[in-house]
C-alpha cells in the first residue's frame, strides 16, 4: 500500500522533548528547543525594579539576562543555593535569539520525550498569577512555556525578605 505524500506519522507529531528540572519539592520542564545553555550558578547583579521572582541579571557574552528563581516563581518560596544549583538559559521569544531568561534550579534532571496528548491543562486558578503551563503526569512535572516566564502578575505588597538574594549552603 502506498502512503500519500502528505501523510505523516501522527505519533511523531505529538511528542516533544523537554528538559526536566528540580526546584524545591517540585519538578518543572521546558521544551528542549528553547534551552540555549545550562551553566553553574554564578553571582548575579542586582537591578532595582525587577519583579520579586527575578534575582538579578547575569552577563552572558555581553547580553544581560534576567534570572528567575523558579522555585519562587512557582509559589514555593525562595531557593537556597547549593553545590548542584544551576541556571538554565532559555529563549523566551521564538523569533528573537537575544530574548533570553535564566531559570535558577536546584538541579537539571534529564531530557524526557513527552506525548502532547497526555498533557493536562493547569486549572486556571492554580498558575494564573505565575505563568502559562501544562502538567505532565508521566514526569510528575509542570511544563512551562518560556514566553510566559517573565510576565509579571499582580502581586501583594512585598516585604524586604522577598527581595533578598539566596545564600549558598556550605558543602
Characteristics:
3 helices, mainly beta, five-stranded mixed sheet, disordered N terminus, 11 strands, 171 residues
SSE arrangement:
Layout: H1 10-14, E1 15-23, E2 26-31, E3 35-40, E4 54-60, E5 63-69, H2 70-73, E6 86-91, E7 100-105, E8 107-115, E9 120-121, H3 124-127, E10 133-136, E11 141-144
Parallel strand pairs: 2-11, 5-7
Antiparallel strand pairs: 1-2, 1-8, 3-6, 4-5, 6-7, 9-10, 10-11
Number of strands: 11
Low-confidence stretches: 1-12, 153-168
| Rg on CA atoms, Å | 17 Å
Cα shape: globular
Mean pLDDT: 79
Our measurement of the CA-to-CA distance between the termini, rounded to an integer number of angstroms, reads: 63 Å
- Classify the beta-strand content into a percent band: 35-45%
Total helical elements: 3
Biggest sheet features: 6 strands, mixed
Helix content: under 10%
* Content-based structural category: mainly beta
In spatial order, strands of the major sheet run 8-1-2-11-10-9
Helix and strand pattern:
HEEEEEHEEEEHEE
Give the structure's gist in a few sentences.
The protein has three helices and eleven strands, in the order αβββββαββββαββ. The chain has 171 residues and is mainly β.
